[in-house]
Design goal:
Shape: globular
Distance between the termini: 25 Å
Structural class: mainly alpha
Number of domains: 1
Strand content: under 5%
Length: 51
């Protein structure tokens, strides 16, 4: 996500950026551990499923 777009989003919402540069399996585990805390998700590289 472009830095200016992220800055604009942060003006309207609380934003958390997940881990960057990790293996997709690690990112998936991070999401599964934290997803319940959030109302929305912006996804870049990860496919979401029912889990």
């Amino acid at each position: 996500m472009r830095k200016d777009a992220l800055t604009d989003l942060e003006k309207e919402c609380n934003v958390t950026v997940g881990p960057d540069g990790h293996r997709l399996h690690d990112d998936r585990e991070w999401v599964l551990d934290h997803i319940a805390e959030y109302d929305g998700v912006i996804v870049a590289k990860m496919a979401f499923d029912k889990e």
